[in-house]
Fold:
Amino acid sequence: MRVPVSWLRDYVSFDMPLGELGELMSMTGTKLEALHRSGVPRSLELYRVGRVLKREPHPNADRLSLCMVDIGAGEPQQIVCGASNFDAGATVAVALPGAVLPDGTELRVAKLRGVESHGMMLSERELDLGQDHAGIMLLPDDSVRASRLILRGGGW
Structure:
């Protein structure tokens, strides 16, 4: 059975590396067969929830779109995207330059067919949250409000 660490923290307070926790659990008779990590490994502040303000065809590529995405930090970011499952107004997960994806890839400002992209809109697979890679992950509209409150240190 897989049990998220967040569930364990609901019942037991601990402050130790997960490998050490696994050893302690095994000594109590609760055999730990494997630790599985999911989600982003670090640089969480470089992951944002954004709203696509504008989506246009890329001037130099048939299968790419040029998007302007509001990530709640001043000017909208220009992001080149290959997915086609969204339109302007969509709420999306965004990784900014400097973010490290779960597979270890570090994002940089990239030039795609002559146009700079200042981030990446993400699929479930790119976030290590599932296997869906058919398009970017579309989030509920209220995700933008929630993420802005969290970034400002506010509450609900």
About this structure: Residues 21 and 27 are 10 Å apart (CA to CA). The helical segments are 5-11, 18-27, 142-151.
